[in-house]
Amino acid sequence: MNTLIVGVGSIGERHLRCFGATGRATLSLCELNTSLREQVAARYGVAAFADYERALAAKPKVVVICTPANLHIAMAARAVEAGAHVFIEKPLSTKPDGIAELDAAVKQRGLVAGVAYVYRAHPALAAMREALCSGRFGAPVQIVATCGQHFPLYRPAYRDIYYKDRATGGGAVQDALTHVMNAGEWLVGPVTALAADLDHKLLEGVTVEDTVHVVTRHGAVMGSFSLNQHQAPNELTITVICERGTVRFEVHQNRWRWMTQPGGEWADEPGVPMERDTWFTAQAHAFLDAVEGKAPVLCTIDEAAATLRVNLAILAAAEQRRWITP
Ligand SMILES: NC(=O)c1ccc[n+]([C@@H]2O[C@H](COP(=O)([O-])OP(=O)(O)OC[C@H]3O[C@@H](n4cnc5c(N)ncnc54)[C@H](O)[C@@H]3O)[C@@H](O)[C@H]2O)c1
Q1: Could you say which of 17, 24, 168, 318 would form a disulfide bridge with 162 (CB–CB 3.0 to 4.6 Å)?
Q2: Ligand 1 centroid distance, CA of 26 (Å)
Q3: Where are the alpha helices (DSSP H) in the chain?
Q4: 34 CB near ligand 1 (under 6 Å)
């Protein structure tokens, strides 16, 4: 499938490599930055465009949008107009504008659109969700997510990219917590109300928030989510407490586990080793399966738009110091 990767910075290069690893995509790239464009094109031996319109004129079947978030909707809309299926990096956007029109255009043309909330492609999280949905542990009553990592270690350029400004998708809420909020909504349903606290604590050279706490309601389910981008451990844990048991996803251990006996032992479900590229290759396969009509997309425009409303509600709730309905 002719697949165009747009923006080959940090995540775009990974998508180029991982769509390539599926063995199902013939690749090209589009990148504004000349030296980056030439280096990445040479590294993977693929055709490269500087201009997006020229890249679309070559009629790609799939366009993967990996530019900063404030550009996603306009670029996805152009790809859809050109007749391509679109796979869009998270967050879907920085504001709601143009999303309903994009969704309508996708449906009208019979195309497939998905959003790259990659946790949905994690086999352990998917298996835990299946167990939750089966009713094996009873109805969820509470969700608790705690996560953090040393962002400068993983993204040394954070001061010089979209991250430095909320308007381009920066800050812990839009950049990182959005993954966890989307996963939380996938597990226990949409956020119906939230309150939030956030601050800039330790990340040098930026003023956007690096530490966040959110209290949520998902209908009857109560939730709390915390995240920072400066702690030494790289850990993400999502615990769902149900009527008849507790389940826990630990991304840093590549596993999910459960406990039903009060004061008992965790039962670990066997995990598979998950290098980051393995995970992103699974996500690429899932999107190509959706394009081929073999499976639904892992995260729809509608679901990602709901998480965008959550991102914006968190920022507003922290600013206004009150509960907000996204
Ligand atoms: N799923 C994940 O785990 C994950 C990880 C990192 C980033 N992201 C998301 O991916 C997106 C990009 O993040 P990044 O870290 O790769 O950023 P980045 O700054 O490293 O890369 C973005 C690239 O887009 C290019 N670009 C900008 N406008 C362009 C245009 N009009 N035409 C062609 N190229 C253009 C830039 O030159 C840059 O190289 C963001 O939305 C971010 O939130 C997701």
Answers
A1: 168
A2: 21
A3: 10-21, 34-44, 52-57, 72-81, 99-108, 123-134, 151-154, 172, 178-188, 276-291, 301-320
A4: no
How distant, in Å, are the alpha carbons of 254, 255, 316 from that of 236? 10, 11, 25
Q: Domain ranges for the chain, please list them.
A: 2-118, 120-261+299-320
pLDDT tens-digit readout, 248-278: 999 999 999 999 999 999 999 987 788 999 9
pTM: 0.97
Check if 2-118 and 120-261+299-320 are the same fold: no
Give the position, in ligand 1's atom list, of the atom nearest the Cα of 162: 19
Low-confidence ranges of the chain (pLDDT < 70): none
pLDDT score for 35: 98
CB distance 90 to ligand 1 below 6 Å: yes
Site to probe by mutation for ligand 1, drawn from 66, 88, 147, 182 as the one with most ligand atoms within 8 Å of Cβ, is 66
CB distance 141 to 221 below 8 Å: yes
The residue whose CA has the least distance to atom 33 of ligand 1 is: 31
**30 CA: nearest ligand 1 atom:** 33
Q: Name the phi and psi angles at 94, rounded to 5.
A: -105, -5
Tell me if 163 CB under 6 Å of ligand 1: no
- Domain 120-261+299-320, CATH among 1.20.120.1200, 3.40.50.2300, 3.30.360.10, 3.90.1150.10: 3.30.360.10
Pocket test for ligand 1, best of 4, 11, 279 (most atoms within 8 A of CB): 11
Place of tokens 């990445």: 40
Q: What is the pLDDT of residues 51-103, one digit of tens each?
A: 999 999 999 999 999 999 999 999 999 999 999 999 999 999 999 999 999 99
- What's the CATH number for 2-118? 3.40.50.720
Atom of ligand 1 lying closest to residue 13 CA? 16
Q: Can you name the residues that pair with 4 across neighbouring β-strands?
A: 28, 63
